[in-house]
Design brief:
This protein has about 300 residues and is an alpha/beta fold. It has 2 domains: about 1-135, 3-Layer(aba) Sandwich (Rossmann fold), CATH 3.40.50; about 135-299, HUPs (Rossmann fold, 3-Layer(aba) Sandwich), CATH 3.40.50. Helix content is about 40%, strand content about 20%. The protein has a 10-stranded mixed β-sheet, sandwiched between helices. The chain is elongated. The model is unreliable at about 250-260 (pLDDT under 50).
Length: about 300
């Protein structure tokens, strides 16, 4: 199971910065990374005269959320950059394992862009996207599973973080399925088709989770019949008062599928709570290198 060795926190003077710092401090406490990189990101559209925070002020903000022992033992890097390209380069060049970034709440995103969304789609490491107002806790986690290897990584990451929290750890796993439109051609009612689909899904997911170590964690699997995966996940996370949703990204090296899977994108964009997107580190490096080359202006 992978560990968090290099942590990044990206700030841009937008709502969510304070929460991103708080979650970065929490992750540092739970995972004891070797280094943490704090990056202040200016928007490309910002006027040239827009002031950039002094590095020592950024360092002071970071030190406020770090346990004193960790602050003395880990490497702390502070820098400033402009635009998405610099954000992606920092993640690659500093070999980050996870980035924490703040965001506005979903209703407040229109007209202000969505750098967090583009970052989560393209960066080669895990990304924790934290909305304004989120409370820094990671002991109660909802992990979405579909039987894929990436969703297995999401479950294992959720279990690791919940155990490390030092509180009463709880991981709720949600498997979302739906009934195909052609069920009526079989002569079954919708209820009969849903029951058959539920049994097949339960058998698949039980086999998928059979060798996952859930010791020391309150662990439960919930099966939900819905065509709207994102809404089903948001509803369950809100109803059960989860601290965050953990979802695997279906990344790959081919450009056609290198971005987040459609389900992950929908969960991320409209989530009213933190979402941790788990990736297999480096899986999108080839795509990222090609993307960064495209940013270059010909001489």
């Amino acid at each position: 199971m992978k560990s968090l060795r290099r942590l990044g926190v990206y700030l841009n003077d937008e709502p969510g910065d304070k929460e991103a710092l708080a979650f970065a401090g929490l992750l540092a406490k739970l995972e004891s990374p070797e280094s943490i990189h704090c990056l202040h990101v200016r928007g490309i559209e910002d006027p040239a005269e827009t002031p950039v925070p002094e590095p020592e002020k950024l360092r002071a903000l970071l030190l406020e959320v770090l346990p004193e022992e960790l602050a003395r033992s880990m490497e702390i890097h502070v820098s400033a950059a402009t635009g998405l390209q610099a954000m992606l380069c920092t993640a690659r060049d500093h070999d980050l394992d996870m980035i924490v970034v703040g965001r506005r709440l979903p209703h407040d995103q229109l007209g202000v862009g969505a750098a967090f969304y583009r970052l989560a789609r393209k960066t080669p490491c895990d990304v924790l996207v934290v909305p304004e107002g989120a409370h820094a806790h990671l002991s109660r986690l909802l992990a979405l599973v579909d039987g894929s290897e990436h969703s297995r990584m999401a479950v294992e990451t959720a279990l690791r973080l919940a155990r490390a929290s030092g509180e009463k750890p709880q991981v709720l796993v949600q498997s979302i399925y739906c009934v195909s439109y052609g069920y009526h051609y079989t002569g079954m009612t919708f209820e009969e088709a849903a029951q058959q689909r539920a049994l097949a899904q339960r058998e698949k997911i039980e086999q998928f989770l059979s060798d996952v170590d859930t010791s020391g964690v309150e662990f439960e699997v919930v099966y939900t019949c819905s065509r709207d995966t994102a809404a089903a996940a948001h509803d369950l996370a809100s109803a059960k008062n989860m601290d965050a949703i953990v979802v695997g990204s279906r990344g790959a090296t081919l450009p056609a599928i290198a971005l987040l899977g459609a389900t992950t994108e929908r969960v991320l964009v409209n989530a009213p709570m933190p979402v941790l997107v788990v990736k297999r580190k480096g899986e999108t490096f080839r795509f990222l290198d090609a993307l960064l080359e495209s940013f270059q202006v010909p001489g």
